[in-house]
Amino acid sequence: MTGTRTALAIWRNSVIFFSAVLLCSALAFAEEPACRSKSGAVKAVYPDLARRMKIGGVVRLHLDLTSTGTVRDIKVLGGNPVLVSAAQDAVKQTKFEGSESCIIVFQFKE
Predict the structure, then answer these.
(1) What is the spatial distance between Cα 43 and Cα 56, in angstroms, rounded to a whole number?
(2) Exposure winner among 81, 89, 103, 108, fewest CB in 10 A?
């Protein structure tokens, strides 16, 4: 009987912990605005390696911008490494509106 109570307590605590983590991460993403390019949509070149391997998916990047709208720092929030490099190359060549930070999402389709 004690083993069952212990297992239920562990399960309950795990659910509470992971719910709190999900809530905090959702709030963190909700505060960041989407990036707006000064010249329209940011186009990433679909890598040949990804095309040959039939890799597709979403890449999310967090950009820290300078006062002139150039990219100061890039943090990868998710995505296949083959696709991430193409997305990073695209944002490095782009000027953005604003001077804070933002999140940009790329959708790569095979």
Answers:
(1) 15
(2) 81
DSSP per-residue letters across 33-71: PBP-BTTS---PPPPHHHHHTT--EEEEEEEEE-TTS-E
Please name the helix (run of DSSP H) or strand (run of DSSP E) that holds residue 96, with its range, or none: none
Sign of the C-alpha dihedral computed for residues 73, 77, 82 and 84 taken in this order: negative
Location of structure tokens 């990073």: 88
- 3-class state of residue 80 by DSSP: coil
- Residue 64: partners with Cβ closer than 8 Å, 6 or more residues away: 71, 72, 73, 74, 75, 100, 101
Calculate mean pLDDT across residues 6-16. Answer: 57
- Greatest alpha-carbon pair distance for the chain in Å reads 66
Residue pair 71/92 in contact (Cβ under 8 Å)? The answer is: yes
The pLDDT tens digits for 75-106 are: 999 999 999 999 999 999 999 998 799 999 99
